[in-house]
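Please check what follows.
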Amino acid sequence: MYPKRSLVTLQQFFSGVAEQTFETRFGIADPPLVDYVADLLLRFVRSDTLHGVRAPSGRRLEGVVDMLAEANERIGAARRELHRHIGDYTLFWSGVYPEALVRLQAADRKDYLVDYPSLGKWSYRLASTLGDDPEQDESNRLLERLSREYELCVQALGEIRREWEQRDPHAGSPPGALWVD
């Protein structure tokens, strides 16, 4: 007899795999951090979110060098959000698709000399200091933890990718859903 299978949404899948990875593989029980990483994966499933940062002129910003230059032009919450996005962007590529860094940092690209992990850590740290609203205190602490635990999150994202690659996507499933045993 075949094992029972259940249908889960992509959000449930990323949340479950992230929680399992952080807790069992790394011994980290930090629900806000785990939820952030799972949400990052869910948000970046859509390429328009991953590559959605635009200059005021509407031009799409292609790499972190362009994003960093734009962040330096912004003030307040917009600057904070762009630095957070830089952290997210570098974390995603460094953890989920590190093999893509060869292309993203090719000699003919502006990001050629950028160390994605160092810039990501720095961007999260800076974003954590830019929020002056007391209601952002928890968010600021989370961004500071992302900076401090950046390498761990890179490793966890690599493990999460390996886990999803082992799953059978079953043709005919509803969009945004996975079958799990």
User: Anything to note?
Assistant: Strands lie at 6-9, 177-180.
